[in-house]
Design a protein that fits this description.
This protein has 265 residues and is α/β, with parallel strands linked by helices. The protein has nine helices and seven strands; from the N terminus they run H-E-H-E-H-E-H-E-H-E-H-E-H-H-H-E. It has one domain: NAD(P)-binding Rossmann-like Domain (Rossmann fold), CATH 3.40.50.
Length: 265
């Protein structure tokens, strides 16, 4: 029986894909995996940012690969994941993390329901929901064949709450994604594959042009959390290691909030 934290949460030698890895939550997840000895493929549409991330990670013990990944074409993005899996030969975990913001919520005049435009709505659904779904599909195909693996989806606390801060299109896409995650977990449990979600609250990422790094916007989001602050980027790493490792071997269909208590409020 493995009872030490080092053994329970080990990802050493695992083949892992992280989408949206050039910055923010994806960057932090990739860093945590590499720091603990995993072989990680960084995927992002921002090739310069991805190269910078790879340089930042160069001294970590894991192995780094890079591949351009653009969710504006969900089918092409899924095919890229499939090709990467074929190159690796085996995939142990896929972090379905890439996504985009979708405008302000009804807490702002431009975010009220009658102001929501079709273009923004369709963009959010295409990238945040369809793009993530097709990435999951590519991972599922490979993991079903090998009869093992872990798919970890970045949902959002917006899937659990009715906050006036994120936009309608973002709420809808992330709520749909959380349900797709649960549905997939039920289908894939018989294949030895776990599917779980990480639901971040407010973190100072590049989403919405880095809005939460601005003092006013950051303070507004922080005020909605019982902990009265934004998350620190490293605070996402524990959940990522949990779901990528055997520490979560009896967990599937979980949407784990890392949100300073927002979902419980």
């Amino acid at each position: 029986m493995k009872l030490t934290a080092e053994e329970l949460f080990s990802v050493r030698g695992k083949n892992i894909i992280v989408t949206g890895a050039a910055s923010g939550i994806g960057y932090t997840i990739a860093e945590a995996m590499l720091a603990n000895g995993a072989s990680v493929t960084l995927m992002d549409r921002d090739e310069a940012g991805m190269a910078t991330a790879a340089a930042d990670f160069a001294d970590l013990p894991g192995i780094i690969r890079q591949a351009k990944f653009d969710l504006s074409d969900p089918v092409e993005a899924a095919e890229l994941v499939s090709r990467e899996v074929a190159t690796l030969g085996r995939i142990d975990a896929v972090f379905v993390n890439a996504g985009v913001s979708a405008g302000p919520g009804y807490g702002s005049p431009e975010g009220v329901i009658e102001a929501v435009g079709l273009d923004l709505w369709e963009s959010s659904m295409r990238i945040n929901l369809a793009g993530a779904m097709f990435t999951m599909q590519a991972a599922a195909k490979a993991m079903k064949e090998q009869r093992s693996g872990s798919i970890i989806v970045t949902t959002s606390v917006a899937a659990m709450t009715t906050s006036p801060l994120p936009g309608y299109a973002y709420h809808a896409a992330k709520a749909g994604l959380a349900h797709v995650m649960r549905l997939a977990s039920n289908e894939m449990v018989g294949f030895g594959v776990r599917v779980n979600g990480i639901a971040p609250g407010g973190f100072p990422t590049n989403m919405a042009g880095g809005r939460l790094r601005q003092p006013d916007a950051g303070a507004l989001f922080a005020a909605t959390a019982p902990m009265k602050r934004l998350g620190r980027m490293e605070e996402i790493a524990g959940a990522a290691l949990l779901f990528a490792s055997d520490a979560s071997s009896f967990m599937t269909g979980v949407n784990l909030a890392v949100d300073g208590g927002v979902a419980a409020a």
